[in-house]
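Project outcomes to date are best conveyed with an example. Our students and postdoctoral researchers have been running inverse folding experiments weekly, and each run begins with a structure described purely in tokens. The record below, which covers 455 residues, was selected by the lab manager from last quarter's runs and is presented without edits.
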């Protein structure tokens, strides 16, 4: 009796185990009836139920696989169509946030204007490597730059001479006030152009220095002693006439690191253009200038708004032979047509015949630039563009994205020199790109002078 009860309990449990195993891995089932013939009748019933369940599950699995294949194929065709016909790009462009800028800007009366109060040399980072070697003033010079480098590290004061920045009119006192610099914490070696100053050039540049006694200006007293001149009680201006001091450089006679800027009275009030060869100092060779915001350059604040418009359409390189151009260069004019297969550009709208004019991308079209000896640099070419904010830099359309209806502009800079008895010479604007303002379709834009329109 007990054996029968034990057998009756085992049978339902075994049936349940076999059913679960058949759902997980039915192909490996070993019929218990082969081991226990007493269960054969019950197992036959169970086997029929399992077989029915297996067929039902197989049909469900087959249906699921067919549905997956069908929907997978439809999804692939859907994405392929989006990609092929540009619908995906348009959809992505639709959900993107509004236009931003690589530099801070404000929307002025006629278009986007850089927020000069937040713009500085240290923020202007070049995106491509470059190197150029040239001969000027009887010597060979090389400029080199790496992507990610600030332009303050490789551009010089002279590159911005006679531009809206008016760097030549600055002095250390103005910069220190704007930057809250403590000049007594700075060394003469921090002011790069001090390296090549002579006693005569320094006495001309620094207000009142020529009338001071040598003993009152320790760096100069030490310098003169190194030159074998003991003249502590003499006026500095009188010593400036000594012939051998005409070429003796301060940085070669004394260690400038041992002296403070304030050790030369009045040095902080000396305008940069008063120093000898002031143009040769790098931007980062002037204390505080790298981080001086551009609202300290008054010439930039007077933006010409007589020629403005609106970005109507941005079009990439499938466009060819565009002749209603408002881009170019100072040397070639600003209506240079694009007579080539690739004429990526932005079509503008505005008053009268301004509608429909084209600003060609400088990434695809190069024009003549530069003047004087240095115009030969970079093959005499620069990216086409405009100078709405003056001659300190050129604004160039660089990247165009039709899917988002946007265009990224860039700043390009140049190398300039002043040659004795000849005058100033500048290369084409070819040093760049430095990210500038990004525009979207329907954004206002400033063209600046000249306001000439193509026929």
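After processing, the design step wrote out the following sequence:
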């Amino acid at each position: 009796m007990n054996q029968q009860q034990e057998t009756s309990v085992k049978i339902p449990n075994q049936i349940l185990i076999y059913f679960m195993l058949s759902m997980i891995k039915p192909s490996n089932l070993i019929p218990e009836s082969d081991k226990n013939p007493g269960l054969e009748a019950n197992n036959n019933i169970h086997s029929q139920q399992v077989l029915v369940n297996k067929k039902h599950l197989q049909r469900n699995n087959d249906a699921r696989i067919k549905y997956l294949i069908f929907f997978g194929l439809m999804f692939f065709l859907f994405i392929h169509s989006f990609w092929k016909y540009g619908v995906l790009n348009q959809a992505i462009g639709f959900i993107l946030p509004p236009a931003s800028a690589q530099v801070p800007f404000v929307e002025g009366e006629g278009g986007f204007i850089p927020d000069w109060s937040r713009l500085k040399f240290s923020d202007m980072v070049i995106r491509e490597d470059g190197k150029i070697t040239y001969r000027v003033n009887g010597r060979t010079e090389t400029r080199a730059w790496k992507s990610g480098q600030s332009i303050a590290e490789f551009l010089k004061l002279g590159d911005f001479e006679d531009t809206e920045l008016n760097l030549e009119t600055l002095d250390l006192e103005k910069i220190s006030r704007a930057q809250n610099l403590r000049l007594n914490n700075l060394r003469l070696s921090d002011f790069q152009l001090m390296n090549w100053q002579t006693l005569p050039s320094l006495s001309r540049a620094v207000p009142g220095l020529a009338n001071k006694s040598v003993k009152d200006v320790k760096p100069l007293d030490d310098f003169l002693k190194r030159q074998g001149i003991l003249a502590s009680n003499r006026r500095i201006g009188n010593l400036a006439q000594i012939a051998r001091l005409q070429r003796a450089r301060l940085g070669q006679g004394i260690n400038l690191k041992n002296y403070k800027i304030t050790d030369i009275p009045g040095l902080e009030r000396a305008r940069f253009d008063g120093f000898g060869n002031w143009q040769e100092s790098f931007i980062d060779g002037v204390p505080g200038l790298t981080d001086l915001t551009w609202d300290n350059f008054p010439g930039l604040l007077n933006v010409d708004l007589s020629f403005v418009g609106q970005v109507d359409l941005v079009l990439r390189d499938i466009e060819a032979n565009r002749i209603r151009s408002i881009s170019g260069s100072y040397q070639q004019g600003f209506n240079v047509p694009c007579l080539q297969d690739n004429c990526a550009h932005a079509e503008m709208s505005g008053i009268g015949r301004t509608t429909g004019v084209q600003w060609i991308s400088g990434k695809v079209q190069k024009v003549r630039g530069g003047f004087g000896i240095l115009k030969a640099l970079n093959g005499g070419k620069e990216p086409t563009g405009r100078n709405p904010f003056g001659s300190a830099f050129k604004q160039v359309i660089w990247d165009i994205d039709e899917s988002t209806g946007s265009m990224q502009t860039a700043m390009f800079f140049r190398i300039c020199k002043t040659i004795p008895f000849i005058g100033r010479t500048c290369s084409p604007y070819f040093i760049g790109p430095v990210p500038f303002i990004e525009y979207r379709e329907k954004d206002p834009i400033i063209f600046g002078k000249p306001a000439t329109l193509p026929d």
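The chain has three domains: 2-81, 103-170+283-455, 171-270. The helical segments are 2-24, 40-85, 87-95, 172-179, 199-205, 218-226, 236-239, 250-253. The training component of this project remains on track.
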